[in-house]
Amino acid sequence: MNIQKAVFDVVEKGTSTRVVTTLINMALRNPRTRKALLRATEKAIYRAAMNGPSRPRRVYLDRYYLGRALLNSIHRAFSSGHLSSEVINKLAHVFFGKILLTGIHTRRKFFKEHGFQPPSFITISPTNICNLKCIGCYAGEVYEKHTLDYDIFNRIIQDMKKEFAAYFFVISGGEPFMYKSKGKNLLNILEENQDAYFMGYTNGTLINKEIAKRLAQLGNFTPAISVEGFEKETDGRRGKGTFKKIMQAMDYLKEEGVLFGISVTPCRHNADLLLSDEFIDFYFNKKGVFYIWYFQYMPIGRKPTMDLMVTPEQRINMYHRIWHLVINERLFLADFWDSGTASDGCMSAARGGGYFYILWDGTITPCVFIPFKDRRYGNIYEVYNRGETLTDVIKSPFFTAIRKWQCHYWMEQPPEKCGNLLAPCIIRDNCRVFYKIVKAVGAEPIDEGAKEYLRLVETGALPKYNDEYRKLADPIWEKEFLQEKEIKEEIAI
Questions:
Q1: Strand 364-365 vs strand 355-358: parallel, antiparallel, or unpaired?
Q2: Rounded to whole angstroms, how far apart are CA atoms 1 and 377?
Q3: Which of 35, 49, 114, 456 could form a disulfide with 462 if both were Cys (CB 3.0 to 4.6 A apart)?
């Protein structure tokens, strides 16, 4: 079977997924056929990116560039020769085949049947229990320990598959490896859902040799380990000795053949370090990470303060640096805000291709960074007790209002009127709009940090910050996106 034709058939027609994923599995294990497969997939990604919703043409390019960087990371991971057999199997059959390739066709089919685009994934924080207490953690100032019931946890996953054909899940916390309910833990979830792929944000300190070996056997989980820089910075926020435990965990994962990455929180004092050549080289080349996620500090959660936020100037510098690394170095890294062009803007409120969030006590919010809930559809236990579904949740007034703004800001606009996707976030970059939505639908704050966020908007502190950022970001958007009439660069595919 021709690899390129097989890839295109899956993307366009959903043809014979089982046969094609078997072909992918075989191709990934051989250097020569792997190169052909990745080349064919790159062409499919380019075609999908350029034929997406009407956007400025530079947005199409950014989407392609990030997809290309992902493929390059896959190539680097396989070339290292460290991946376990089951990790390769799950990458081929679940991540590569079911999510990355057939996902395009599946979403098209879902839209035809239901009339709306489904969310692509969900983030679940099954427990707020953690062995660390990091400064500024978005998980918040929560003193009472909460753990999501195991049956509810698993039901959410099953319902995402059944209702939205979503097979990718993000696990956060608290610390995911401290989750326990009814004698079961996170590893049981992974074992019972071998048809899904998981990424988990973890502090890494609980990943020992045994857990690393089990993850290699299961194959469907990639840890995103939180660091703050090097030893000084990481121990400064997370506690003395944390960095050494993380380094040991990474060594265990690498030895057992598990794909892993890192997650970092750029703040005013460390933003430059986290994108330095030294930092990038250490984690990508010396430690062997597969990806890096950047989550800029947000004034929510535990004792929120704007003093920790990156300055508008730092954020612009981060934007340029990240895209340089993605385009020129082909490294797979992304910023929850500065990669807004590749994600097609704000992904919250279960928009098509986006996601939503369920916490340890069943609370449902539009995003991990939006600590507000709908008055009626604000808790999964209550939703299930009423006999309602996840589809009912995403149709809630709060979620609907946010999606309506998304449509008005960019999703249903012609390219020349597309809102600035360098400022995509509704709760941060467009806080005045978000404040009005909260008041209009009666959305409720879920913690004290959310109430403090409202005060930051009311006093004008956050709006002022956003205005200063816009002075820098709007000219870039106007010149590099709206005024660019054609793609000047030839895409070598």
A1: antiparallel
A2: 48
A3: 456
Instruction: Return d(Cα 139, Cα 155) in angstroms, integer.
Output: 23
Residue 27 pLDDT greater than 70, yes or no: no
Region 204-209 average pLDDT: 98
Query: What is the tens place of the pLDDT at every residue in 253-304?
Result: 999 999 999 999 999 999 999 999 999 999 999 999 999 999 999 999 878 8
> Are the beta carbons of 108 and 15 closer than 8 angstroms?
no
pLDDT level of residue 8 (50, 70, 90 thresholds): low
Cα–Cα distance for residue pair 253/190, rounded to 1 Å: 16
Distance between CA 450 and CA 371 in Å, rounded? 6
- Evaluate if pTM is beyond 0.85: yes
Q: What is the full DSSP assignment across 187-243?
A: HHHHHHTTTSEEEEEE-STT--HHHHHHHHHH--EEEEEEE-SSHHHHHHHH-TTHH
Contact 306, 299 (CB under 8 A): yes
Given a contact cutoff of 8 angstroms between Cβ atoms, the answer to whether 325 and 333 are in contact is yes
Digit-coded pLDDT (tens) for 116-141: 789 999 999 999 999 987 765 655 45
> What is the rounded distance in angstroms from the CA atom of residue 371 to the CA atom of residue 348?
12
Distances (CA, A) of 197 to 27, 46, 98: 20, 23, 10
Which class for 165: exposed (0-12), middle (13-18), buried (19 or more C-beta within 10 A)?
A: middle
Least Cα distance to 226 among 293, 280, 271, 288 occurs for 293
Which token pair is 125? 């924080």
Q: Give the integer Cα–Cα distance in Å for 225 and 146.
A: 22
Structure tokens at 105: 């066709």
- C-alpha span between 109 and 201 (Å, rounded): 31
Strand-pairing partners, residue 364, are 358
Query: Any idea where the domains of the chain sit in the sequence?
Result: 3-110, 118-493
* DSSP label at residue 379: B
Nearest CA to 442 out of 396, 394, 383, 375 is that of 375
**CATH T-level topology, domain 118-493:** TIM Barrel (3.20.20)
pLDDT one-digit tens code per residue, 420-451? 999 999 999 999 999 999 999 999 999 999 99
Signed CA dihedral, 271, 365, 124, 406: sign only: negative
DSSP letter at 116?
S
What would the mean pLDDT of 28-50 be, rounded to a whole number? 77
Alpha-carbon Rg for the chain, nearest whole angstrom, is: 21
C-alpha triplet 187, 188, 189: angle, nearest 5°: 90
Q: Cβ–Cβ contacts within 10 Å for residue 439, how many?
A: 10
- Alpha carbon dihedral 353, 354, 359, 362, in 10-degree steps, equals -60
Contact 96, 21 (CB under 8 A): yes
